[in-house]
Amino acid sequence: MTTTNRIERHHYDVVVIGAGGAGLRAAIEARLAGKKTAIISKSLFGKAHTVMAEGGAAAAMGNVNSRDNWQVHFRDTMRGGKFLNNFRMAELHAKESPQRIWELETYGALFDRTKDGKISQRNFGGHEYPRLAHVGDRTGLELIRTLQQKIVSLQQEDKAELGSYDARIKVFAETTITELLLDGEKVAGAFGYYRESGEFILFEAPAVVLATGGVGRSYKVTSNSWEYTGDGHALALRSGATLINMEFLQFHPTGMVWPPSVKGILVTESVRGDGGVLKNSDGKRFMFDYVPDVFRKQYAETEEEADRWYTDPDNNRRPPELLPRDEVARAINSEVKAGRGTPAGGVYLDIASRRSAEEIRRRLPSMYHQFKELADVDITKEPMEVGPTCHYVMGGVEVDPDSGAAYGSVRGLFAAGEVSGGMHGSNRLGGNSLSDLLVFGKRAGGHAASYADQLTARPKVAIGAVEAAVETALAPLQRDTGESPYQLQQDLQAVMGDLVGIIRREGELADALGRLAELRERVAKVSAVGGRRYNPGWHLALDLRNMLVVSECTAKAALERQESRGGHTREDFPTMDPKWRRVNLVCSLDGDAVRLTHKPLPKMRAELIGLFDRAELAKYLTDEELADFDALVADADAEEAGN
Amino acid sequence: MGTKRHFRVWRGDDSGGDLQDYQVEVNEGEVVLDIIHRLQATDAPDLACRWNCKAGKCGSCSMEINGMPKLGCMTRMSTFEENETVTVTPLRTFPVIRDLVTDVSFNYEKARETPAFAPPAGVAPGDYRMQQVDVERSQEFRKCIECFLCQNTCHVIRDHDENKHAFAGPRYFIRAAELDMHPLDARTDRREYAQAEQGLGFCNITKCCTEVCPEHIKITDNGIIPMKERVVDRRYDPLVWLGNKIFRRGQVPQTFVTSAKHGDAVHSHGAQGGVHSHAGDSHDPAAEAQAQAGVNWHREVPKPTAPAVDDNGKLPLTELTFDRAAAPSPFGDDVTFPLPPEHLNFAHPEQDKH
């Protein structure tokens, strides 16, 4: 009791965990709905991983090619995700992205422009038309800064009206949430600590929005920041929510592999969109050998045709370097394994020999500066050494597509952005994540606010739960016999990188599960030296248990899914299986153990499935589903004939 | 492959601390932040340091490396000599929380005080029309990653806590400039606001902020100076112009431009005030030799140079005889920035108590 009495307590209507694009957009929405809103940021305000997004935000505004519309965007998204997407999320995303982008301009965002003064849009892998609103190659920074400044502007309004900047929306910077607290099945609050002081903090709130991003820190080579430890995934599991699609991780095909100062850092896809090509150590442009049948119609077969596409995209097919990310990642992996890789284990990405130095500097300014300064590599003079790097997790909290409310037993929990699952299916298209953040951030924030409104009584935080949370949080500091958290993280990264990486095999996955079980024992005994003030060793020790449980979900689901699709490649099951397309693998927590169940995918509405060719659907659907589709088309034809 | 290198890292908190020595492995192609991470994984698990993207995009790992404000992730180890000691200290302008982590809340307070973008009335979302050439000016400032190195290096607040309440700093001058140049911002008083509320007048254009900016934003030339222009316009006076014509620089009586004594008028810290650190690069062989030998933290560094005063101890502030329309640099007009590295030092306030 004495420990819990001294804990700082706050009362809010909506607590948003995570201050990236999704979290900030959710918080703005909750505040606009009049709710007292807290934003919990693991880092300083405005440093979230969203700043790393380079390419742009996909939205079918049709500014560059007027043939673009939400239906085309929807089709591209479903294709990219290999039809495993939650169709309703893909539909909402395609329909609402343009409004969300335009809205940013009213917050002060300055996107690059077309000649007639509209928002410019660029080509990107998997998108049929130029669709990505962008600001050079720092679109993520623009997005986070714009949302950050919008929050400041709301705070200024509150200051004018109520006398305090923090009256209705407050940012808790450098604060980590370690537990969600429940009252029965209802969310009652969140418990965590200030990183700076190590002091605990308790939020009492009926609605919590998770927007914590991804899980990449469990991998050796990753583009993700230290924050990406799967906190939201783990918090959701522990509070009774479910995760889906956890076997699908996106390995970005072109991360730098050399030198070490930039290892894992992404080379944006726009390098390929603007003319960069992939070559193996023999100097061969190898992507032409890796165009899968499902894409053969849309991609060039010769270098000549591919090169014409850059200037005349209407009359030529696109270069195979612009295939979806998973295809490119797999191709690079195959080349390296066949012994045609670079010394550091990647392939060459060459733009230097294809565009003038001046043009490269103008079109890819931050790429150029980044590598010049970080690694002393001049991309206008020499090719880059690139390889797949863990980039994004498609899987996440299973949510109601319209509201972002978590499924499972818990009430009052919402999720948006990378931490939620379903939207991207088995593979995310580049540019779809920034618009995902905005569309579903807004929805989750709005629905969290209305959930809080309709509650008749506020759920109560149980003292016992807070005491338990305090004990768990302090445990690593009180042990001095356990292992170092850094060692444990390294071992976890080795298991995930080596055994649950880009190409997976049954034996290795089973082995990984064994090793994760061992790691679980060791993590339970981790000890951190030093005190509570800004102690990164202690912070990592607490993050480890989240990383571990999420890694178990990924390994279990990867072992279960006996096919290759999008971000999940099984060497022993190298093709897509239409039967598996109908299945989502759902993870939940049974005590401490991860439980995996099969759940059928929701069936696409008639007007949506009607947007596709039968020939295309035949690559994805079972015979039974195709028969349904044919019946649907026949009905529609009959109806038309009847009119 | 790796070699052992000598690092000195400031460890401590708001109650004090000191530089600690570490021998740490360094591999080819690594940056200072890689080495800090290696220290955390080996000798110093609780070494506090902010970082996020490790790609120069988030501006979290700001620190002072051999006295220079820099991003840890963008300082390549290959820029140091093999036997050179690398000294890493926290940003000096902000209060230390622990080790390399400082309390940068000052910046967030100033951000909240800067009026936000004012959307144009009557323009619906989706109807905004702007030309690329017009947005580019503001886009330069929106490249800012908020690493706060410019805020840290700005001498108006670096050694003058007392100026902090009245001075927003370079980061927020370019925020005001960005909004001033925004094609559709509905407010028209951004410059006046910067002058009246942000303390733009404190800035005497030494360009230190531009020098340390990892995004290479021309903070002074493209942001601050255009903001000052209107103010200068207003202060323009034909008599000053005449004075400048009569006494061109070089013809002004020598007593006014040289200084025989160092005043303590500006730097009133007295006994331990001999600390004056600025960012800057030097290719002076003597300086490099000294840096290689390690920095002697108890060395005598020159006292800051106060502006030249006359025999009565007064500034030569008669605009007719002075060669410019504004006040002289508080550091003396003969001081050029960046200062040479041998004039740089880091001293914790508690240093002399031991």
What would the keywords be for this entry?
heterodimer, A: 643 residues, alpha/beta, Flavocytochrome C3, Chain A, domain 1, five-stranded parallel β-sheet, four-stranded mixed β-sheet, B: 354 residues, alpha+beta, Ubiquitin-like (UB roll), Fumarate Reductase Iron-sulfur Protein, Chain B, domain 2, 3 domains, five-stranded mixed β-sheet, two-stranded antiparallel sheet, 7 strands, 11% strand, globular
What can you tell me about this protein's structure?
The complex is a heterodimer of chains A (about 650) and B (about 350). Chain A has about 650 residues and is of the alpha/beta class. Among the domains of chain A are: about 250-390, Flavocytochrome C3, Chain A, domain 1, CATH 3.90.700.10; about 605-640. Chain A contains 20 helices and 22 strands. In chain A, the strands form six sheets. Chain A has a five-stranded parallel β-sheet with strand order 7-3-2-11-18. Chain A has a four-stranded mixed β-sheet with strand order 1-10-9-8, with helices on both faces. In chain A, strands 17-12-21-22 form a four-stranded antiparallel β-sheet. In chain A, α2 packs parallel to α5 (about 140-160) and α6 (about 230-240) packs across α16 (about 535-560). The model of chain A has no long low-confidence stretch (mean pLDDT about 95). With about 350 residues, chain B is an alpha+beta fold. Chain B folds into three domains: about 1-100, Roll (Ubiquitin-like (UB roll)), CATH 3.10.20.30; about 105-235, Alpha-helical ferredoxin (Fumarate Reductase Iron-sulfur Protein, Chain B, domain 2); about 235-355, no CATH class. Chain B has twelve helices and seven strands. Chain B has helices at about 30-40, 105-115, 130-140, 150-155, 155-160, 170-180, 190-195, 210, 220-235, 240-245, 255, 285-290; strands at about 5-15, 15-25, 60-65, 70, 85-90, 95-100, 100. In chain B, the strands form two sheets. A five-stranded mixed β-sheet of chain B has the order 2-1-5-3-4. The longest helix of chain B has 17 residues, at about 220-235. The chains are: A alpha/beta (about 650), B alpha+beta (about 350). Chains A and B meet through α4, α5, α11, α14 and α16 of A and α1, α2 and α3 of B.
